[in-house]
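Hi R.,

As promised, here are both runs. First protein below:
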Amino acid sequence: DYLLSRMDVTSCISYRNFASCMGDSRLLNKVDAYIQEHLLQISEDEIEVVSITVWVSLEADAKMDILKQVV
């Protein structure tokens, strides 16, 4: 939970990579939820390639929710 308390839109992609490499599904799920909630901010702060990586990692339902917000 320490990592989650330190996470922000500029660090969440690195946290996701760390959780994935460590095989920590609990942390990975929480980071993914954070990414879904903050995707618009993340995409504004990160380069386009990272935004695409985040987008690809999301489930279809999460993508639809975000698209509804954007459109």
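And here is the second one, sequence first, then its structure tokens:
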Amino acid sequence: QARLTTNNAAEYRLSIRNAGQRASDGEIVVTDRLPAGVTLAAAPTGAGWTCTGAAGATTFTCRTSAVLAAG
């Protein structure tokens, strides 16, 4: 378990998967709230994702229309 300290950058990753029995269909939206005391340094990025969230924010939302395979 990593420990975050004041004014030091850290990387925060989310992994998204489809636990269903069919491939996804339509837009996928992920919204996340950062742990208490943690803020964004910049808007999140990810290949194939469009994200909103500004420096200093504690939440962000990312969207994609990519198809996620089942399982």
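A quick note on the second one: The chain has a mean pLDDT of 90. Let me know what you think.

Best,
J.
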